[in-house]
Design a protein that fits this description.
Helix content: 10-25%
Strand content: 35-45%
Shape: globular
Distance between the termini: 6 Å
Strand order of the largest sheet: 4-3-2-1-5
Number of strands: 5
Largest sheet: 5 strands, antiparallel
Radius of gyration: 11 Å
Length: 79
């Protein structure tokens, strides 16, 4: 489970915090709209994300949200 919380949204990018299992310090995911390869990236890993598994899942969720043009303030990612 990941908890995602919107940090910043501009015309150039969107940044979400992600928190694995809702515990520890958050990491950050950034999605840059003007990048050549439009894919979200882990800006900084979360404290409890040793192998980047939660970060990669959070990237997938952020991409899904951006593609659907729906950017909620908070979302819980169960899978």
């Amino acid at each position: 489970m990941n908890k995602l919380k919107l940090k910043e949204c501009t015309s150039e990018h969107v940044i979400y915090y992600y928190q694995p299992e809702g515990k520890g310090d958050c990491g950050e995911i950034i999605y840059i709209f003007t990048a050549i390869a439009i894919e979200p990236n882990i800006l900084s890993p979360a404290e409890n994300d040793e192998f980047g598994t939660y970060g990669h899942k959070a990237c997938d969720k952020v991409k899904e949200l951006v593609d659907s043009r729906y950017l909620p303030f908070e979302v819980t990612q169960l899978k």
